[in-house]
Amino acid sequence: MCRVIQKRHLLAHKMGVVDEDYLKKANDSQAVLGRKITVSRDEVIATIKLIEKLGKRLFEGLIYATS
User: Fold this and answer.
1) Who contacts 48 (Cβ-Cβ below 8 Å, separation ≥6)?
2) What is residue 20's predicted lDDT score, i.e. its pLDDT?
3) Are 33 and 19 contacting, i.e. CB atoms less than 8 angstroms apart?
């Protein structure tokens, strides 16, 4: 999830270009300083599944906390 958030940051703020901060935080062995990152279809699908799982757990936590 950390890598996904870091990639989103690059896409939103750095036009997708890898910087030193990304290299330090993302642990992405395929990233090259100064080059654009890639986001594969499989990575998007895996991220959607993670977000769905997080959302479900948050919802369950709210239900449990209010009962």
Assistant:
1) none
2) 97
3) yes
Number of residues that make up the chain: 67
Q: What is the dihedral of CA 26, 29, 35, 40, to 10 degrees?
A: -80
The answer, as to whether pTM is greater than 0.90, is: no
CA 23 to CA 61: how far, in whole Å?
34
Backbone φ, ψ for residue 33 (5° rounding): -50, 130
Residue 36: helix, strand or coil by DSSP? Answer: strand
Q: 19 near 10, Cβ under 8 Å?
A: yes
Residue 26, C-beta contacts closer than 8 angstroms, at least 6 positions apart: 2, 3, 6, 7
Per-residue pLDDT tens over the stretch 4-49:
999 999 999 999 999 999 999 999 999 999 999 999 999 999 999 9
